[in-house]
Design a protein that fits this description.
Helix 2 packs parallel to helix 5, helix 2 packs antiparallel against helix 9 and helix 6 packs parallel to helix 7. The radius of gyration is 22 Å and the shape is globular. The longest helix is centred in the first third of the chain and has 27 residues. It is built from 10 helices and 7 strands. It folds into 2 domains: 30 residues; 264 residues, Rossmann fold. It has a 7-stranded mixed sheet, with helices on both faces. It has 302 residues and is of the alpha/beta class. It binds S-adenosylmethionine (SAM). The site of S-adenosylmethionine has 19 residues, from helix 4 and strand 2.
Amino acid sequence: MTDRASTQRAPWRRALLVPTLVRAGLRAFRARGGAWDRYWRGIRQTGAGGEVLWDGDSAEERGWIVGLARRAMDAGLPLVDVGCGNGRYTRVLAPWFTAAVGVDVSAEAVAHAERETRVELEALHRTGAAPAPGEAGAAPGGASAPPRLSFRVLDMTEAGAGARLGAEVGAANVFVRGLFHTLDAAQRGRLAESCRALVGERGTLLLVETDFPGSALAYLELLGARGGDYPTPLLRCLEAGLPPPARFGARELALRFPEASWEHVEAGSAELRSAAMRPGQTSTRIPAFYAVLRARPGRGSP
Ligand SMILES: C[S@@+](CC[C@H](N)C(=O)[O-])C[C@H]1O[C@@H](n2cnc3c(N)ncnc32)[C@H](O)[C@@H]1O
């Protein structure tokens, strides 16, 4: 090869390296734990006007979830909130159970959860006000005693994670909001096993998952994307490389929690309330699916 030919072909050859580099880079960017930590590290504000897409902090959704949990779950057991994020629902549900543990794969999420819990409890102590039932810090009797509430970093799709946590906290009620729909098939299977290990023979599992029936592009439109103009809560997810959401509805439930192993106490369609996608807007209602499940005695996980 002449020097001239080599010079002419070099950039073209180099260019051939790029697609693989980009693909590898994207794969690394979407690495599970890493992506969630990257996401939570970038979050400055949570709640209705914040940047966390699924954290609408809606009184209506809170009331619905507390009502369901109280009706279906044994109040004499602790509650584990799996994939707790900033701990919104761990705090909301904690007062109704003997203790509550929020677990999340992301240390950054757990730091948000601990910080927000501290701030809420400090505010309660300052005002001395007893919060309304269903609000963070509310106790069943209306007293404002802080519930036994803690958070920890744990990948619940790791083999044996549920059994290890269960050995510590005992049989527990399990709450999962918005996690299964972000996982691949193998992870869903292992998370279902963790849930089975945690609930034992007395606990109840409550799932609330995104179940959008349309295409990925239609979902982006529902969340307010228009051409190149994406709302901030949506951009935060894309920029961090979070796993794209998939459906988790009746079909997926039957696959991961077959009726031979799980009693399907109730299930149906629901709505998750998002944060305001743009300033001045109200939350978006995201089509979702919920299920209340109990493990059948004597049967292992599917
Ligand atoms: C869509 S967010 C929902 C957060 C919270 N449940 C809520 O409804 O506000 C999913 C959460 O699950 C966490 N997560 C993802 N994979 C996980 C895993 N393998 N084990 C534990 N938590 C996980 C993420 O860090 C994130 O906080």
